[in-house]
Amino acid sequence: MSDIEIVHKVYVGIGSNIEPIAHITKCIKSLKENFSNLRLSPIYESSSMGFDGPNFYNLAAFFETQNDLVSLKKFFDSSLLFEITSSSRIPLNPLRFK
To answer: 3-class SS at 41?
Structure first.
C-alpha cells in the first residue's frame, strides 16, 4: 500500500427554493465541518424551470477531500442531502420535468 495521500478536488452545486437561506446555510455549515479548503461562489437567484414555484438561490462550492467517490456519495446521501430534504418533506430524486 502506498503512503501517498490523494486529495480530490470536488465541485458541487447548492440550491434551494424552499427556505433557501436556512437550507443553504445548513449545507455550507456541514461542508465546513467535514471538508477542507471550502470555497464558495457568489449566490445568484434564478427562476424555477419546468414547474411553478418560488425562485431558487444557487451557488457552487469547491472543497478538497481524501474520501473516494463511494464514500463521498454516502456522505451526501446519508447526512447532508437526506437531512435537508427530509426536513423540507421533499422526496429525493423528484420528477420535475415531464
So the answer is: coil
Q: What is the DSSP track for the chain?
A: ---PPP-EEEEEEEEESSSHHHHHHHHHHHHHHH-EEEEEPPPEEE---SS--PPEEEEEEEEEES--HHHHHHHIIIIIHHHHHHHHTPPSS-----
Is 46 within 8 Å of 60 (Cβ atoms)?
Answer: no
Cell 433557501 locates to: 20
Q: Once rounded to an integer, what is the mean pLDDT over residues 67-71?
A: 88
Backbone angles phi, psi at 41, to 5 degrees: -80, 170
Q: What is the pTM of this model?
A: 0.73
Nine-digit cell at 60? 457552487
Q: Residue 4 is placed in which grid cell?
A: 501517498
